[in-house]
Amino acid sequence: MKTKSILELNNIETFYGRIHALRGVSISVQQGEIVTLLGANGAGKSTVLRTISGLNRAAKGQVLYMGEDITTRKSHEIVEMGLIHVPEGRRIFKGMTIRENLELGAFTLKDDRERQKRMGHVFEIFPVLHERQHRDAALLSGGEQQMLAMGRALMTRPRLLLLDEPSMGLAPFLVKEIMRIIVRLNKEGVTILLVEQNARVALQLASHGYVLETGSVVIKGDADTLRRDESIVKAYLGD
């Protein structure tokens, strides 16, 4: 029996003004998977995530989440459905403490005991955030800011997590730590759609992936097949 997709994009067309950013993009993500989007800068990877999360509106096509059409849903409604977007650049709230940043991730939650339970889970995954919870988030390193951005997303109890370039600008040892955490979250039941410039790392984590060029999906397949594809090796893996 075929597993039902948690996310499906069907022939998505997205524009920035007159710029045709996405051209008939179709992708599918099954419950429990890690799926990666690969491509050069400007290929449309971030636009795919922004279209899914409602930050950009698709001009044509359909976004289905858990079988429901969310193409025209507002961003906050999509968040409430458990679909959470961690954008490129972390976008933490500087001038607020780490704890205050995390609390914003569950600001609609009225149950204080549940909020504290979720925060305890975040602190268990990211001990450094627990140690520094009363510090201004602006004082965190790049890697710690990425952990905070992911921790804030976890405060919503996501079913599907959209991660946009989580390793960008990080030292190699921090990249390994972030990827270890992504695997852990996936094992805990979070489905992940990952945009990652480090294609080698992304294909080690993912079950399958899609390659975008100028707003179109040009290659798709399971991760092992993509790792052996000569065009992908030359373009993204540096071999």
Any overview of this molecule?
With 239 residues, the protein is α/β, with parallel strands linked by helices. It has 10 helices and 10 strands. It has one domain (5-92, 158-237): Rossmann fold (3-Layer(aba) Sandwich). The chain has helices spanning 45-52, 75-80, 98-104, 112-125, 127-131, 142-154, 172-187, 199-205, 223-228, 230-237; strands at 5-16, 19-30, 34-38, 60-65, 68-69, 83-86, 160-164, 191-195, 208-213, 216-222. A 6-stranded mixed sheet has the order 6-7-8-3-9-10, with helices on both faces. Strands 2-1-4-5 form a 4-stranded antiparallel sheet, with helices on one face. A hairpin with a 2-residue loop joins strand 1 (5-16) and strand 2 (19-30).
Kindly list the characteristics that best describe this protein.
239 residues; alpha/beta; Rossmann fold; six-stranded mixed β-sheet; four-stranded antiparallel β-sheet; 10 strands; 38% helix
The Rg value, from CA coordinates, equals 18 Å
Strand content: 25-35%
* Shape designation: globular
Q: Helix and strand string, N-terminal first?
A: EEEHEEHEHHHHEHEHEEHH
Whole-number tally of structural domains: 1
Residue stretches low in confidence (pLDDT < 50, at least 5 long) are none
Q: Could you say which structural class the secondary elements and strand pairing correspond to?
A: alpha/beta
Distance between termini?
A: 39 Å
Give the biggest beta sheet. 6 strands, mixed
CATH topology: Rossmann fold
Give me the side-by-side strand order of the main sheet.
Answer: 6-7-8-3-9-10
SS summary, helix count: 10
Write the CATH architecture name. 3-Layer(aba) Sandwich
Mean pLDDT: 91
Strand segment count: 10
- Amount of helix: 25-40%
